[in-house]
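Possible regression after last week's pipeline update?

I re-ran a chain I had predicted before the update to compare outputs. Posting the input and the new output here so someone can diff against the archived version. Not blocking, just want to make sure nothing changed silently.
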Amino acid sequence: MDRAGLDELDREALIAIILRQQETIERLVADAAELKAQIGQPPKTPGNSSVPPSVGFKANRAERRSRKRRPGHDGISRRRQQPDVIVRCRPTICQGCGEPLPLRGQRRVGRSQVVELPPIRPVVVEAWQYAARCGGCGHRTKGTYPAGLEPTRTFGPQIEALLGYFHERHHVSYERLVELCRDALASRSARAGLTRRSDDWLNVPARPTRRWALPCERVR
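New output (post-update):
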């Protein structure tokens, strides 16, 4: 209310206004004193006040936004790799009217990438050893089997490395390795081959674990 409005009021009306203002001032002074007394004190919790548990332990939105990230969680999306195979998903029929759509004028609007294994098909490698007799001294000499194709082997170095990785690092049992060779590699001689290699695996010293990628180092 401005001065002109106050001039029009009588004595009783002015006294009533002053009394209401006095009550408001006293209430504000009391609130300020209570807030000043709370400075430096711990916040109210269900343990030190009558605050209910649902209110005391619930973080407000500002606290939730400022919460730190957990270690090891970078918060980034999956990195895309250079694709080996590209599948072009082109529309051929209009979903609105059913008319055929031309290839010309189409543009890429999205992409989806997955990591897949090619079909697992074992390759049987057979080494043929030849012999020749020297025409000068008559000595008969045999050809040497290359490393990894010796007659005592059942599996090549890469399969042995894979089986050794499963057995030593992931503790896959002997029987499960036999099933793996039979089901995934279509090998009927897995039991005999694993029997020959099991002693070697038991005697192999522990090596640092590397990111698994074939070809692997021979387990021997």
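Follow-up from reviewer: compared with the archived run. Residues 202-220 have pLDDT under 50 and may be disordered. Marking as no regression found.
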